[in-house]
Amino acid sequence: MGEQRYTELGDFLRSRRAALTPTSPTEGARRVPGLRREEVAQLAGVSVKYYTRIEQGESHQMSDSVMEAIANALRLDASERLHLYRLAWPAQVTRRVAGPEHVRPSVLAIAEGMTEQAVLIVGRRTDLLGGNRLGFALHGLRADQRPNMAKEMFLEPAARDLFVNWEHVARNVASYLRMASSEQPDDRLLAEIIGELSIKSADFTRIWADHPVSECLHSVRELRHPLVGRLTLNEESLRLPDDPGQRILFYGAEAGSASAERLRLLDSLVSSSGSKV
Prior knowledge:
By secondary structure, the chain is α+β, with helices and mostly antiparallel strands. It has helices at 2-18, 37-44, 48-55, 64-73, 78-88, 105-113, 133-138, 149-155, 157-162, 166-183, 188-200, 202-208, 258-272, and strands spanning 118-122, 128-131, 218-225, 229-239, 247-252. InterPro entries: Cro/C1-type_HTH, Lambda_DNA-bd_dom_sf, MLTR_LBD.
């Protein structure tokens, strides 16, 4: 696991270096996009040899100041910095026992009791753990289904039809998986999900190779629902502090909007059909 982790650290640094645009002109054409190792080393205040060793996975002992300097040189955001620190200092990552997840009954009751918004409860491996009737209906699921939402996104054609900007939503999912994998590097079940997606989905492999890292806690989603048509919904994601990795996803529309009316229509349609979509 250690060598693989440092290889991933190097891959992540190279991906962020390639994504940057030089701030000053340089002589001659560049053979590769982004910053050169020499430029990152200069910005970080370290030697080129030392930074090269880090990218090649040969330097496993980095101080706080060096890591902060590299993060600043690569212009990493908060999520990317957290990912970098987890890769660089795996001994400081808190491990959890890998196994099936269960949602607390009190949390499930909150979700099921909401009627104005669609609600889903998702686990640390993106497994669907619960939700309310409207949440299942919004995603084209039966109330008794508990799929893995990452697999649904990349492997089910219905997801591409549902989300207007599928590429953006899919990248968010891959970004979350990347963060989860660095947070829990020994989670075998999570690794199996990522491995399956890498084999079965060319789009996942393409996006994963970019090393996207972010935790999307709020967004605006555009959906094309087969029963009620176009929906513009505000998505809010709340982490459950007592159940690490679990999140409650809320989907709601602005009061008085066409989307709010369509959301109520969807709820009534599902209610009259016995919770089937």
